[in-house]
Hints:
The model has no long low-confidence stretch (mean pLDDT about 95). The chain has 14 helices and 16 strands. The strands form four sheets. Strands 10-9-11-8-7-12-13 form a seven-stranded parallel beta sheet, with helices on both faces. It is about 40% helix and about 20% strand. By secondary structure, the chain is of the alpha/beta class.
Amino acid sequence: MTQLETQGLAAKNAARVLSVAGTARKNAALEAIAAAIVARQGEILAANAADLEAGKAAGLRPALLDRLALNQGRIAGIVEGVRQVAALPDPIGEVTRMSTRPNGLTIGKRRVPLGVIGIIYEARPNVTVDAAALCLKSGNAVLLRGGKEAFRSNQAFVAVMRDALEGAGLPRDCVALVTDTSRESANELMGLTEYLDVLIPRGGAGLIRSVVENARVPVIETGVGVCHVYVHEGADLDMAARIIHNAKTSRPSVCNAAECLLVDRGIARDFLPMAWQLLQTKDVELRGCPETRAILGDFVKPASEADWDTEFGDYILAVKVVGGFDEATDFIAAHGSGHSEAIVTNDYNAAQRFLDVVDAAAVYVNASTRFTDGFEFGLGAEIGISTQKMHARGPMGLEELTSSKFIIYGTGQVR
């Protein structure tokens, strides 16, 4: 057996134990993990510092370094996420339906774990803990395959979690890290059908496309975030400026950050200078249509056709002036990625139409797209944001990591 097959078999055996561990044992393990991360954050930060040093030497972009970076505040947030997951209701064992057939059989549906979940992700070490916590609470073992940029950080987190699991009386192999970060290990993981029940990619468009196109293991597709903020002619312009500033600049490297601003023509001359005044405080580069450039000047770069479809993940914003609601929503339909879309308006009818016609996992009225997040939605940490429509859509919390089985009670019936 290869090393990955050995890990897969160990995870499958661990999943059988975890699936019937019960809520109290799982919560105790999560609390142990949270406490261990706090106690051992020094070694985690040291590992992360080594990753950051290597990333800078390799020429990683600032936005990618931001994704990679840990500090005491971010670790505190990760720990809080673990404790929130522990406090959430356990979905496993929930009977969602029960009825009696004319022949006397009582038939129900019960939530069960998916089994063994594989996660392929890039330079975000927080995903290591978020994914493990959600998988543990939902009764799933997890095989983590992070990128080489965060390898030392991921290794430190997984070592802490495996020790904590063992101390809490659960198998260490409920959580495992693929130590080979080469393309070959990713390809092998995509074909590990004997051991993996589902594979979830988290990262950029290239990674997600590769997994979707090449995996033989069933995939839950997490999406690229080409998110729009549409400022309707009925908007409160001060509110709209604050929303686009937050949606673009609060953390531009993440998938729920806005990448494109659409503005109704009737308010563009008033609104665009207001928005620019805030955006320039973070040195946001604008790439605009001709009308945008006519209003704001030549320091706005001309937008290319590719810019309308790009997840920049950086302090870059595409800007387009539109002729009204229909043009805006048609543009979103053509260029959006189905992740998060927002309208800013005080027009009730326009808001309701936007909610009706825009096809995305999260659709907002008068709020920043940055709220598309499991923590913000009350799900605890998330394992990813699904932009597909099968099984799960939007931030994936505990329920989205379950399947179901029919349970049947009889009194001797035969067919």
